[in-house]
Amino acid sequence: MFENNSGLLRIANEADRATVATILFKNGYAVTPRRIKTGSRKAEMYVEYSRPGKIMEVDRDE
Predict the structure, then answer these.
(1) Is the residue at 57 inside a domain?
(2) 17 assigned to some structural domain
(3) Among 5, 28, 33, 45, which residue's CB has the most CB atoms within a 10 Å radius?
C-alpha cells in the first residue's frame, strides 16, 4: 500500500485549490496553501498536504 502521506500539488485555479483542499481536509489530512516564486515577479500556487500517522480524537464530554 502507499506509504507517502504528504506531498505538494500544483493547482493554478483558486476554486480548484479550494475544492481539493476541502476534500483532503475532510479525509483527515492537514492542508496548507503555498506560494512558491518561480521568477522575479511570478509565483505558482500549491496545496501542501500531510496526514499524521496517528489521529487524536477529542472527547467532548469532559
Answers:
(1) no
(2) yes
(3) 45
In a domain? residue 31: yes
Give the model's pLDDT for residue 55: 58
The three-state (H, E, C) secondary structure of the chain, written as one string: CCCCCEEEEECCCHHHHHHHHHHHHHCCCEEEEEEEECCCCCEEEEEEEECCCCCCCCCCCC
In this prediction the pTM is 0.73
Q: Which amino acid is at 60?
A: R
Long-range contact list for 38-46, CB < 8 A, 24+ apart?
44/10, 44/12, 45/10, 45/11, 45/12, 45/14, 45/17, 46/8, 46/9, 46/10, 46/11
State the total domains in the chain.
1
Strand partners, 7: 49
